Amino acid sequence: MATKVEGYETTMLITKAGQGVGIRRGDKATVHATGVVKETGKKFWSTKDPGQSPFSYQAGVGQVITGWDQGCLGMTVGEERQLVIPAKEGYGAAGFPAWGIPAGGTLMFTLECLAIEGKDR
């Protein structure tokens, strides 16, 4: 059953457990990610597509959309998680037309944590 990310409207569902210490604010996280627009069912991005590679970012500091940034905190290596991100915690009222994300679009991400780098690791 999906649960809300504390303090946000984004929901998460862990579909496969991982192990180790989870992603913390400031860590460099590397993930596989597939994003779909909930309203249309259209995939707009996947790191598993030909020519793509895993995505790395610094967690919890605003380098990615809010729902993703907060929804991946605590994720462990090997874990798979689904996030449903409302527009206000995604690309907002403007959407992201270049990627086919409509104004006010809700995003669904399937994520797999591949690696975590940070202090005390």
Automatic annotation (TrEMBL):
<keyword id="KW-0697">Rotamase</keyword>
<protein>
    <recommendedName>
        <fullName>peptidylprolyl isomerase</fullName>
        <ecNumber>5.2.1.8</ecNumber>
    </recommendedName>
</protein>
<dbReference type="InterPro" id="IPR050689">
    <property type="entry name" value="FKBP-type_PPIase"/>
</dbReference>
<dbReference type="GO" id="GO:0003755">
    <property type="term" value="F:peptidyl-prolyl cis-trans isomerase activity"/>
</dbReference>
<keyword id="KW-0413">Isomerase</keyword>
<dbReference type="InterPro" id="IPR046357">
    <property type="entry name" value="PPIase_dom_sf"/>
</dbReference>
<dbReference type="GO" id="GO:0005737">
    <property type="term" value="C:cytoplasm"/>
</dbReference>
<dbReference type="InterPro" id="IPR001179">
    <property type="entry name" value="PPIase_FKBP_dom"/>
</dbReference>
<dbReference type="Pfam" id="PF00254">
    <property type="entry name" value="FKBP_C"/>
</dbReference>
<feature type="domain" description="PPIase FKBP-type">
    <location>
        <begin position="26"/>
        <end position="117"/>
    </location>
</feature>
